[in-house]
Batch of 2 targets.
Target 1
Amino acid sequence: MTTSSPTANAQSTDNYLTFTRGIKSWMFTLDHKRIGVMYLVSVLASFFVGGLFALIVRTKLLTPGEVSWIDADQYNQAFTLHGAIMVFLVIIPSIPGALGNFVLPIMLGAKDVAFPRLNLFSYYLWVTGAFLSVYALLAGGFDTGWTFYTPYSTTTETAGVIPVVMGVFVLGFSSIFTGLNFVVTIHKLRPPGMTWFRMPLLLWALYATALIQVLATPVLGITLLLLIIERAFGIGIFDPDMGGDPVLFQHFFWFYSHPAVYIMILPGMGIISEIIAVHSHRQIFGYKYVAFSSIAIAIFSFLVWGHHMFTSGQSELMNVVFSFITFSVAIPSAIKVFNWLATLYKGAIVLNTAMLYGLAFMFLFTIGGLTGLPLGTLNVDIHLHDTYFVVAHFHYVMMGSALIAMVGGIHHWWPKMFGVMFSEFWGRIGCTLVFVGFNVTFFTQFMLGSQGMPRRYYMYQPEFQTYHVISTMGAYVMALGFFVTAAYLLHSLFFGKKAPANPWGGRSLEWQCTSPPPHDNFSTTPSVGNPYDFSDVRWNEAEQGYEIDPNAVPSKDTH
Amino acid sequence: MIHLLLQAPSESTGQNALMTSAPVTPADFWLPEGASTFAPQVDFAFQFVAWISYFFFVLVVGLMIFFAIKYRQKGREAYARGPSHHTMLELGWTIIPTILCVFMFWFGFRGFIDLRTPPQNSYQIDLTAQKWAFNFRYPTGAASADQNLYIPVGRPVKLVMRSEDVLHAAFIPAFRVKHDIVPGRYSTLWFQSDHVTEGWNDSDPLKQKFHHFFCAEYCGKGHSGMYAKIFVLPQADFDLWLEKQGRWMDDLKGDELWQVAGPKLFGRCASCHSLNGSAGTGPSWEGLWARASGGAGSDGKLDNGRETYSSLIGPGKKFENPESYVRNSILNPGDHIVVPYGNVMPTFRGQLNDLAIDAIIGMMKNLDKFDAKGKYIGGAPIAAK
């Protein structure tokens, strides 16, 4: 239990936003909180751009034939940019880079991550990667699809391929350094009393993510370098005309990119564990199962890449083996969902915006996970492969789950990050619009895909048009939802009520420093107990927030 | 059609088509009509997984909504007592999904092995994929003239596929089959359809039933237009059809050759070459004959700026006459590239015979008698076919 005085920590008047002033104090900051905020702004700006390209693609698909305002080449560039931006610039860095950077050291009661300079360097690598991508766009664009499959990517005439591949290469290193930083921070900077099994589950999730980032991303780097070498110097590695093998590229690519799926979703699962427990004011159910399932997912994630290649021409035996292992990754994901469900049981549930995003995640991830099952079933996958069914499935997981968790996390920690409360009324409206719009957009795509509509199509058979029109309408509703969300969050920065230190009743350490936190997070190293034991939390009417009752008798609950 | 079906000889299997007939699986909420022998098996596996999914979805979301309503926070309650774990429950929701997963794997595995094991007596059709067309070649050496795939009913058909350029994929939703076509190797795909596509030879295209044959692996600009129709024919009709493929141009007399065969052949060129001067992947045919014959535009740059049409074509030059230049450009497209276009056109050597090249040249010479889509609008004397 907390023996140091949380009130002393909560009383400091300066905060990290006002600690120093001026643009340079941000650009050269080593403060993990400021770096987190810079990541947040950059990632959200990229999300806006990637979203615009999605709307372009969806608007084209209102009609089956050619349209005058965008031709096939431009359409191919638009969906390529949408995919590349959303994967490499938004989802992969979003939760570790923005929320992870901000929350992780505070949750540990530490002053910063283990390597603050490396952290800033990671951010500037991200910026470099983003600029290389913009340069690639200006240099002539690229139409390879975000997967860069050879030999199309080594022979296409668009001039931006090498710059964007360089950009993704650099972004990979940004990701590796962030992962390295988190692994060391979690190993070395845990405060006295915080054993592995007293870590908040977000830290388990970020730790599992960091392991994948460090181990898998170098493979992507090598693969992209080989791609550049082949394209620039004509050295045959993947192109059969020069003695290479295009299927080899797919193996290399998915050896990274399947684990990368878990780089995207695992931190989201961590956030959901926090949101569900805190807003239910109740001990998380099955802490150890949830924690170990993160590690199990991280391990299995390295063994299933071949399920992206069931139709590629890899051997039948490998298809069978990969199908079998793929089903094993379903189990830890199911365990997590059931444990979140059991956490709701006998809770004291508050349906505020953050919790609504948490429940939306459970709904969407359940669909995203279950629709992975037909894709793992070999003969059914043969029919569904490379159709809109796959598009819908990975949007349910990548966007409906990972990104919705990110948005939920932003709402959960917004009072902590900026010291202000946003409008719960508009928050609930924004969440509803996003949730409804998302389902209308992507559920129709399951039907499109199972009925045989291939992906990455500029034109399509007229029989698919009804579904496409419904899907596009859903995308507009979702866009409206995100605009509402952006509006009330920005509004709250200027006009929001001042946030208490602990608005939701959380028990992990970040809720024990002021909102926003002081530059050094904690004046004294706090000691910690069970992060999900809420027995000593009580409501303080004067503060309009929760506080820890210093006189409470410690609960006997242990893991 | 049914009487034809009954008469259809099935030499290779030695069985009547109807005896091996698998039912057509009707279209439902999820899946389109299934017309191959695989369809019932694939659809069963799909429905098996779907019903498991419905069950777990209703369970999870139902309980979630129920709990979220029943266990609402009362006042400012900051601590709710609930169980922290339950070992039997944890074991239950680990073991039961595991068992279900084993069943799903098993159904998928069994079906997949059938999907990947073509029978010994399969009828082989060679498929060459290129940006952005499928070319089907039959055992007689004939190619499908209209680029569509015609197959005999009730007989296993094996496609042996290769790619001229980048990755493509053959995808037939109604047959539940798909396989990538990888450059530098041969890939195979097999299927059997026991149901004739009604009205396949009806002169009214709206009355023709057919199955879609899509490219499912992204291959660039023309990816979504890389498409063929599949017609399933009674064996006797199929034999007649095949007989005609090799020599359909032989019967065309005089100008009929370019009037009738020209537009049909142009269908393959249309994805890159326009007839009205609008820009495409390759140069428009408009004015092409004039440029090649020393007329307007004959100073147009060729071959990265080193040559022009007039320095290349004419008596005593590399090409004696414009016909030789066009023929060479079809068979060896990379020899002389028109500035500023790239070297992307595949060779049509082995796909277009001399008669076909004559028909294309005839069409180029008489472009004013065709509309922008390649339809002949010159009036008589065209013999209705």
Note: Strands of chain A lie at 420-421, 497-498, 537-540, 545-548.
Target 2
Amino acid sequence: MRVLAAMSGGVDSAVAAARAADAGHDVTGVHLALSRSSPALRSGSRGCCSREDADDARRAADVLAIPFYVWDVSERFAADVVDDFVAEYAAGRTPNPCVRCNERIKFAAVLDRALALGFDAVVTGHYARVLNGPYGPELHRAVDDAKDQSYVLAVLRPAQLAGAMFPLGEMVKTDVRAEAARRGLSVAAKPDSHDICFIPDGDTRGFLRRNLGERPGDLVDESGVTVGRHDGSHSFTVGQRRGLRLGTPAADGRPRYVLGIEPVSGTVTVGPRESLATSHVRADGVVWGMGPSRSSFDACVQLRAHGEQLPASITVEANQLTAELERPADGVAAGQTMVAYDGTRVICSGTVSGPKGRMA
Amino acid sequence: MMAATTHYLDHAATTPMLAAAVATVHAALSEVGNASSLHTSGRRARKQVEDSREQIATALGARPSEVVLTAGGTEGDNLAVKGIYWARRAADPRRRRVLVGAVEHPAVLDAAAWLATHQGAEVELLPVDDGGRLRPGAVAAAIARDPTDVALITCMWANNEVGTVQPVAEVVALANAHGIPVHSDAVQAAGALPVDFGGSGVDALTVSGHKLGGPVGTGALLVRRELDPVPLLHGGGQERDVRSGTLAVASVLGLAVALTHAVEHRAAESARREELRDLLERGVRAAVPDVHTVNAAERLPGIAHLTFDGCDGDALLMLLDARGVECSTGSACSAGVPEPSHVLLAMGRGEAAASGALRISLGRTSSVADVQAFVDAIAPVVERARAAKPTAGPVGRR
């Protein structure tokens, strides 16, 4: 097959491209330029859109002896990922920009362009597996469960999955680094990226403040009593404990957590840890994996990236999933993705609209 | 995908070295001698440099003392724009205006922009017509606003993206009336058009080695003796005290051989390239009738600039590359990302219309087979690239 390898400049995508070439595919490398005003060199923690990352990707392509180009997807990335990220926080939700990037950039804009240009698939360094099931391609968790990224890919529709290739799904990270070193790839020891790539300094609050400005509001307890003021509800996420700067200590002296965010008034509700726990989680915008959709089933759900899997019984009505968790979960934030698994297989996913009964 | 044979159609980016230049450089690289040394080896090196300087001067209608050897076109442009600005401002602090054609090479534009942000220059971009030719009327108007405060005018000989020949003689006539120096970037013109420094009346002229069959990293700025640009590089003053640095003897020799060859064969070779270019443009028009070409009376013989609506130049380039046909989108890249061409924007084409551009540039080694390969490839490539360009609507959603 003719495949397009998206090369971020990191070790994973470089080895993924190499493995695709080893498998006999005709591989072309592309680096996706996500920002036009990228800093020339990295500062502080790692990003994936600096000039240096593009150079690392180019050098990896040189080692693999594959053609290499840079594709400018900065406009789409700004509109579909960055603006969405800011708008979601403004609406009191906690978005996962990697999910949006996979859904709308890598396996939409880039895949569409690749297919139109005559490629058969897009190769990435994600840790996940696409396996052929009875109904077609299924998304499965990676063999390296600690690195698994099926959570941020579960939003892909079957047609998108059909054009995706994840050569690292069967590998563990230490082997990937060893293989990179063996192949002479200079990125073999390059640190993993953990931060949001468009916030390379890791200061998400500062980024949101610059984009949303000050939006002061009240911090209230569960009974509605004002216990403090804040300068922007977007600085909070459900389940957060630090940085609340409460004026009034809790009566019981115990720590308090963000329970909910009301974006219109800017009111942030805080309370004890017990109140964070919820057994009912709703999610909208259901995306089904291959296979018949069902109205009720048991599954394990994951509610945040690298979060634990929680046994649940799920009902589906209209375009909404409701999960009844066997054990209550803490800090379920609206805007995150809920993914339902049958073993390693992704059954379906949706965007958390809220723990039942608290948020709209 | 790597194609078996390569059709190199990007000679305006760089062109293969002339075999005679390779041989000359190769032989000279084994010889020791700093052209500034006083002993026998040094004098031998010096003689080679001075012989080359005379050849370069002869080829371009200049005097040897007017040839300042440089490390290439970018250095020549920077030395001219900054050095003449500094010198003219030092002589009269009112001279802060720099008049720059809107379609100049980035080596000129960025140097001028730096003068504006760091050196108090007032840079005026002069407009071009829809064929990319500087409007002499605009030059006249810009000078007339106050002829005494203009530090210099810079007007390229011919444009590197679209190939349009610029009205250098008209600009010189306008500037001469007020004693304003004119610099011309002739990097694409030298060896392709008749370039006579002395006869042209320009005060400074940039040429580059690797665009005409010489080695990369060598070039010259021709500067009239009366003009003393303030140096960019200090430390030895090897070149007329205008440029410092040990002379790269082998490269200078290679430049002289290539330039001399190019100028001697110019008339026949340019006619040949023009025929190939016309063949290419006719073939493309037949294959893709809605292609846009450049509407200019005088063009470089070896550059065809094509724009295809509804597709991206980088997609065209990639698809052609996969078929072994190598050309350029024509515009500058930052980290490999094509920017909208400032040349096309200055010509009044919108950003969307400017996006599907290709520059095909022919050189000494170009053949009918190369042109035919491009013509054969272009229709399916454009069709595919157009399919890959999403029409309006929500981005990336299915």
Note: The radius of gyration of chain B is 22 Å.
